[in-house]
Design brief:
The complex is a heterodimer.
Chain A (H helix, E strand, L loop, with lengths): L1 H12 L3 H18 L17 E3 L3 H18 L3 E3 L6 E3 L3 H15 L3 H13 L1 E5 L5 E5 L13 H15 L15 E3 L2 H13 L4 H16 L3 H14 L3 H5 L5 H17 L2 H4 L1 H14 L7 H28 L3 H15 L6 E2 L7 E2 L5 H37 L3 E2 L2 E2 L6
Chain B lengths: L1 H27 L1 H4 L7 H10 L4 H6 L9 H9 L4 H29 L6 H26 L2 H14 L22 H33 L6
The chains are: A mainly alpha, B mainly alpha.
């Protein structure tokens, strides 16, 4: 019964304009984001730039953080905060700016006039040029002049930065737990070579491509299933077949699960053929480097990374629409997506608790290994949430079938 | 006038109220997620173009939702008051609340020490809201699919984060780069979408009504 209902549901989606709009959006999004360039090549010794990594050196963390703080301060751009886990810009008043300036004075042991003048002089001799490929070349006539005083210990530095974070607001980018994020340093040739070899031998090339594929496609899959879940529930309401379906022999679990699984299948259906395009690139790179390739990498990543997002978003929209029989799921789903993409405190290479984990990098196997445990916990969590929501949907459906709930409201006949 | 008030009251109670509540929550929740103090004109543009303008989708698309039920649609089409008149009344109320919420939000930003040109920013948020909401209305009228009507403007909104090149004068976030002229295109584009949507609905209703009539369909 379940299988035949799933087949019926899938064939219904094959006739739906929403499904075809989804396929077009998916393909256009893929082509616009991923199709240009993106080939992994062996780093050459003596190159000007091998990319960036984060340092654990306390002195580098202190100096980099102070530099970012001073640049944010003098450029008068808003400070980044994450008060409820979401990105929020804060523009300080003059009094608050004076307090931050006093903290900078304590860190570099220079008066405000001295360090502001030093920054002006630095900026006069600073220039950035971009080549045809968008790579930048920075020219500094004098080195960055505002550094932490050598007598300041890391503990004292953390205390002062906590004061700064207190002035800026809750969840400031200068809070204790975010300081390391400021210590970005250039990678050496040896580090770059080791990273390249990790991609060849540990990632088997296709793993690196599968990650960036999931990163981009996850953005779309965090939003579009909302429309499927909502449309499916409202279809019954609109064609007024609810009562007919209620009277059928099929149990509530069979009806709800078949519809839910059909949506999940239809969402993933175009994703897998689309993954053949980046897989072909991975095969090309692997053959050029003379190494083997993992042909199943995309399937594994799609199931482990993308499926929990699809399961959750579909279950969420299904549950909310089954309860309200309106369009609330679309609006709330869009808000959740907006928060997950634009207001995330986790950055573009972090899983955290985000519904849409990001890893916007081709390669960096070491960094991915560091966040893998968190990613696995994240994905399991959203899968569990999805199953809970599906259970709730089932309960709502059953109550409606029994006449306890009607049109999203408790039936007036309940007491009679 | 009596008819206008009666239709308005029914529309407010059964259609507009929940969407107005969502819009109000969206505006009241703004300080939780985005900075609303001491902003300059570019930062205000970011808030208005990227956040507040979304209430256009919330308020305008539901204009056709009451007609989704075929019984109600047939019933209202059979009445003396034309459907066109009902749609215009619903649109006017949605626009009125759009103006009030957009204006109030800007007024609060002024009180929070933000520096910007009130008139210019008001036009900006209205242009974006009309364009997104009008686009949804147009899709709704064309395909008679409410979910699809929400999907298209939301996807269009997302596409705008990819850059302005392909979208030309219909780029939503131009004021964040200090460009105002695009707002005229969005404003009039929104009006065209809305007018087109009402026109399509008018044609569809009269076609469906006359088909039913010739088939001997009953209209209670």
């Amino acid at each position: 019964m379940l299988i035949s209902l799933i087949k019926k549901e899938c064939s219904m989606w094959m006739k739906s304009i929403i499904f075809y709009a989804y396929v077009i959006i998916l393909v256009v999004f893929y082509v616009s984001q991923m199709e240009s360039g993106m080939l992994i090549s062996r780093p050459e010794p003596g190159a000007a730039d091998y990319g960036y990594t984060y340092s654990d050196d306390e002195r580098i963390i202190m100096d980099s953080t102070l530099k970012d703080l001073v640049i944010d301060f003098v450029s008068e751009r808003p400070f980044a905060t994450y008060p409820v886990g979401f990105y929020k810009e804060i523009t300080l008043s003059e009094e608050e700016r004076d307090e931050v300036a006093a903290c900078i004075e304590r860190l570099c042991k220079m008066s405000r006039e001295e360090w502001e003048k030093a920054v002006d002089e630095y900026e006069e001799g600073y220039s950035v040029e971009y080549d045809d490929f968008g790579r930048q070349t920075v020219e500094e006539k004098i080195p960055w002049p505002v550094v932490t005083d050598p007598e300041i210990t890391y503990g004292e530095f953390e205390e002062i930065m906590e004061e700064v974070a207190g002035i800026i607001g809750r969840g400031s980018d200068y809070g204790k737990e975010r300081l390391k994020g400021h210590a970005e340093v250039k990678m050496t040739y040896e580090q770059a070579l080791s990273e390249y070899e990790d991609v060849l031998y540990k990632d088997k090339v296709s793993g690196a491509y599968a990650r960036i594929f999931c990163d981009y496609i996850g953005i779309i899959l965090g939003l579009l299933p909302v429309f499927f879940g909502t449309a499916r529930v409202l279809k019954d309401k609109r064609s007024r077949v609810k009562e007919v379906v209620y009277a059928k022999r099929a149990g509530s679990a069979t009806v709800v699960c078949s519809r839910y699984l059909a949506i999940v299948i239809m969402i993933l259906l175009p994703v897998l053929p689309l993954s053949l395009l980046p897989l072909s690139k991975a095969v090309y790179v692997a053959r050029a480097a003379g190494v083997g390739v993992d042909y199943l990498a995309f399937l594994k990543y799609a199931i482990g990374w993308l499926l929990p997002t699809v399961l959750f978003v579909t279950a969420f929209s299904y549950a909310v629409t089954e309860l309200t029989e309106g369009f609330l799921a679309v609006l709330v789903g869009a808000a959740v997506w907006f928060a997950a993409i634009f207001l995330t405190p986790f950055g573009l290479k972090h899983a955290g608790w985000n519904l849409i984990p990001r890893f916007n990098s081709l390669g960096e196997y070491g960094l991915f290994s560091d966040i893998l445990d968190q990613l696995i916990i994240n994905r399991i969590l959203y899968t569990v949430f999805a199953l809970l929501l599906l259970g709730i949907t089932l309960m709502i459906y059953e109550l409606k079938r029994k006449g306890v709930l009607k049109n999203g409201k408790v039936s007036e006949n309940l007491g009679s | 006038m009596e008819k206008f008030l009666k239709i308005s009251a029914v529309n407010f109670k059964y259609n507009l109220l929940p969407h107005l509540t969502v819009s109000l929550i969206l505006c009241l929740a703004a300080p939780l997620f985005i900075g609303t103090k001491n902003l300059d004109a570019y930062q205000v543009a970011k808030v208005m173009e990227g956040y507040v303008a979304l209430i256009g989708i919330v308020l305008l698309i539901p204009v056709f939702i009451p007609d989704m039920n075929k019984d109600i649609r047939d019933l209202t089409a059979s009445k003396q008051t034309p459907m066109f008149f009902l749609h215009v009344i619903r649109i006017l109320w949605a626009l009125l609340f759009l103006l009030i919420l957009g204006g109030l939000f800007l007024f609060v930003l002024k009180r929070e020490n933000c520096v910007f040109d009130f008139g210019e920013m008001f036009y900006t948020v209205m242009a974006n809201a009309l364009f997104l909401g009008g686009m949804g209305m147009f899709v709704f009228a064309l395909f008679d699919q409410a979910v699809f009507a929400y999907m298209i403007p939301l996807v269009y909104y997302v596409i705008n984060f990819g850059g302005r090149k392909q979208l030309g004068n219909f780029y939503l976030f131009s004021m964040q780069a200090g460009h105002f002229s695009e707002k005229h295109y969005l404003f009039f584009g929104g009006l065209v979408f809305m007018a087109g949507a009402v026109f399509i609905r008018k044609i569809a209703t009269s076609l469906s009504f006359s088909l039913c009539y010739h088939k001997g369909g009953s209209h209670k």
